[in-house]
Specification:
Elements (H helix, E strand, L loop, with lengths): L1 H14 L7 H8 L1 H7 L13 H11 L5 H5 L2 H10 L10 H13 L4 H17 L23 H9 L5 H16 L3 H5 L6 E5 L5 E8 L6 E5 L2 H9 L9 H14 L5 E3 L2 E3 L2 E3 L2 E3 L8 H13 L4 H8 L11 H20 L10
Antiparallel strand pairs: 1-2, 2-3, 4-7, 5-6
Length: 355
């Protein structure tokens, strides 16, 4: 029984890693018959057979080129519908049903950002079924709570912290490499050594860089790497094994705790336009996504607000013709990027993380 409960929790967490696993969702997975007996099912129209999950799985199968996070972000909608009204089908969503579902999510204290994703998932289902999906009542606007960014001193503390196990050392270095390279975690899992290049600058010097496929345009940008990032890659032979979201999150939180990252952070929840404050030490809040947020914030901070540096490192592309010359932009911006990392890291710029 314990194994069944743990496996169910892990499966729900992997499907929606940024959300709490609710009691209702656990009951739906573990005791589906009991849940169905108390739920209030919507009447089923004759001929309607496909569930939200089936429609979304069909959509995912047709869009395998998208990032893993994009492919799985609607899984929570399917799970919630199976709990809320298991007999409801996408074709049956009316303005009244949408309003009731919105209130249900608010009652569960889901964040506005989460509700927005759920409504986007409903629209995706209708589009997949070639049904009208642009109704105003299927739109949901959200104010996102601010994301955690580490400060320069906190980044240096992670670098200077001595890991107590090989797994913690690997995850700390992976997190740092993600920050320096601007990569998402799923990109590191499929990292190919051939993406490493030497970028020739205007003065003829060469600097190590990684090819970075920009999401919107598909063009390759080149992200210059500070020396410490190269040393991290070489130490692990440029190989970062796959782990689940939960494993990564647990490890980086333990690392931050051991490294003494205790600054209080308001991990606030915005639901129904209302802010619910939740002050916690940052080692309880830090996650895999914090690395990219930290990179963007610190690069802008030390460069006097130069957004172009963060944009290039994080792979954010403008949808215009200039993106065809992303590598040329990298050659022009590389010196400024490396200078920014030098300011952020100080003596650690060309050092190695403590092991």
């Amino acid at each position: 029984m314990v194994k069944q409960v743990v496996d169910t929790f892990n499966r729900l967490w992997d499907a929606a890693p940024f959300e709490k696993v609710s009691k209702a969702a656990m009951f739906a997975e573990l005791l589906p018959a009991e849940v169905r007996s108390v739920a209030a099912p919507a009447p089923v129209k004759m001929g309607v057979t496909r569930t939200f999950r089936q429609v979304l799985e069909e959509w995912k199968a047709e869009n395998r080129n998208l990032a893993k996070d994009s492919l799985r972000k609607y899984d929570q909608l399917a799970t919630m519908m199976e709990v809320w009204r298991p007999e409801l089908r996408p074709e049956q969503v009316t303005q009244k049903v949408a309003k009731e579902y919105q209130q249900h999510l608010l009652d569960l204290q889901k964040s506005d950002a989460t509700i927005k994703i759920h409504f986007a998932g409903i629209r995706k289902c209708l589009e997949q079924l070639n049904l009208k999906a642009d109704m105003a009542w299927l739109q949901y606007s959200a104010k996102n709570a601010p994301q955690l960014d580490l400060e320069m001193e906190e980044v240096r503390r992670l670098i200077s912290w001595r890991p107590t196990s090989e797994a913690l050392a690997e995850e700390r270095d992976r997190w740092l490499f993600q920050m320096f390279s601007g990569r998402r975690y799923e990109d590191l899992e499929k990292f190919d050594k051939r993406e490493r290049i030497m970028l020739t600058l205007g003065d003829g010097t060469n600097v190590p860089a990684l090819l970075h496929a920009q999401g919107k345009t598909g063009n390759d940008a080149a992200v210059p790497l500070p020396p410490i990032a190269v040393k991290i890659g070489e130490h692990w032979n440029w190989h970062f094994p796959a782990r689940t979201w939960q494993q990564r999150g647990d490890l980086i939180k333990e690392i931050a705790k051991q490294a003494g990252l205790t600054r209080e952070w308001d991990d606030r929840l915005i639901t129904g336009g209302k802010v619910v404050h939740n002050w916690r030490p940052i080692h309880q809040v830090i996650g895999t996504h914090t690395a990219r947020h930290t990179a963007g914030t610190l690069l802008k901070q030390v460069s006097g607000g130069n957004k172009a540096l963060a944009k290039m490192v994080l792979g954010h592309a403008d949808e215009d013709v200039t993106d065809r010359y992303a590598k040329d932009k990298a050659r022009l911006l590389a010196p400024a990027v490396l200078e920014a990392w030098q300011k952020i890291l100080g003596e650690w710029y060309d050092g190695v993380p403590v092991r």
